[in-house]
Amino acid sequence: MKKIVRTIPLVTILLGSVMVSGCTTPESMDTMASPTSTRLKNTSPTKINEQTVPTPSIALPTSDVTALKEGIALYGDGDYNGAIKRLSTADEIWAGGFRPIQLDVLKYIAFSYCLTARQTLCRAQFEKALKLNPAFDLAPGEKGHPLWGPIFERAKKKAKTIPPVTYP
Fold it and tell me: Which run of H or of E encompasses 48?
């Protein structure tokens, strides 16, 4: 008898929590079906309360961005030759790619050449970047670097004497 008396409150609590967990209000249902829910994978419009709401799509990195990230990772790991090879041979970057990404690639290749004591090749990469964009510049912290800072300044002075390349 004592066991039955002890289990009745426990069973009552369990049943009550099961019944309450099934209760929702219309407002909470709208929140659960929100188009910004991370569970939604498709980009097709969603209907909520008879209104069509576009589902936001998550942009995946393009192949040129992926190649740039891989090259930067190699650079960050101290594999400067690996970074040069990955970034120099990335067809997805150079085949009509996005110019700001190409500028970042040239910068990291230049840094890698400077860090491997190949100053002429380092300067050549900076010169290529300045031909792509005459306004190309390094960040203040990058300009002050003892290896590539002076090389970049020389490339920048040289680029001012050469007319910029025009693109269609």
Answer: strand 46-48
